Amino acid sequence: MKQETKCIQSGYQPKNGESRMIPIIQSTTFKYDTSEDMGKLFDLQAEGYFYTRLQNPTNDMVAAKICDLEGGSAAMLTSSGQAATFLAVFNIATAGDHIIASSAIYGGSFNLFNVTMRKMGIDFTFVEPDCSDEELEAAFKPNTKCVFGETIANPSLVVFDIERFAKAAHAHGVPLIIDNTFATPINCRPFEWGADIVTHSTTKYMDGHDVAVGGCIVDSGHFDWMAHVDKFPGLTTPDESYHGITYAEQFGQGGAYITKATAQLMRDLGPIQSPQNAFYLNMGLESLAVRMPRHCQNAQTVAEFLENHPMVTWVNYPGLKSNKYYERAKKYMPNGSCGVISFGVKGGRKAAEEFMKHLKVAMIATHVADAHTCVLHPASSTHRQLSDEELIACGVTPDLIRLSCGIENVDDIIDDLNQALASIQ
How is the beta sheet containing 400-404 ordered, strand by strand? Predict the structure, then answer.
């Protein structure tokens, strides 16, 4: 099936007389006839559900849809995109291990890696996404367990060279994990370029309507864990908390990674997505293939408008021919990248703040990547505690405006931006 059809059909096929929509199984627990039946579940010898903190039928149906869209072998939902990022890495890395990550990633992910997970004893090396082959090679260590990057970085909009980093990771016997939130599987399927694991903040385009926080992890099923037994003992040696099960042996190359993340990490940490939120997410997924082209078309038109506006000093959008990542974006995302643009206005911080006051269609919000056009001036909001010098040092200029183009009529978005820009002249 094509992606448009998968958005509707994958994950759940109702039988005769069953509900057309995915049912919401709003239950914490599940009933069994005998203790032996339940015991098989606890030993991972049978499929089924015994407690929603680990798995829930509604969640699994939605995860299966995302898995199909990405072309993976197995998937799981999480409570948020941040939880997905953490579990994806922690599933194969523990104290004493090392991770390579792109320096151009979402600030929350950077802090998770650089602060919180360092406290857990996991070391990180951050590399520029455009580093040389020599610099990338030098980042690897004997205890490196994975490489992490974002298809399109939030908010820098750096387009990650998936194929190049995948080859480097595989040469060292480790998987490449890609956060595909901004592109979605409608515009990019990282597995086709060598990535091994994909994560999503489903809160963004997948949900698309500011309704439910959530995340997802998808395994490609391509990485051979048993070929690197010593490097990934959590998957290739017995887990005593499950009666000595070896995940890679019992669940195979396509099922080991997600089974371990579910049976072990979700069991112990519990960042499960609620069935109600999974239901909302599924509704968003049904229109994802229709919405993404509109987001991209609107963003392209708006970016071109801004690039030619006298009150705009610079525009960053991968769809512009003037953009540093234009050719790379065309390679990985030939049908469009995303709806997020960043740009600067003449007059710096003061002018940017004035511009924000006059917007009528664009909604001032911390969110991005949904049906509403949203706008944010980091210097006066999320980064307001920093001086202009400190802002520049962390890559956020005082004049920077982050604009997430929604699916409204593009003329209305442009008219709104135009009148707001006129207010600062």
Answer: 312-316, 340-345, 400-404, 374-376, 363-364
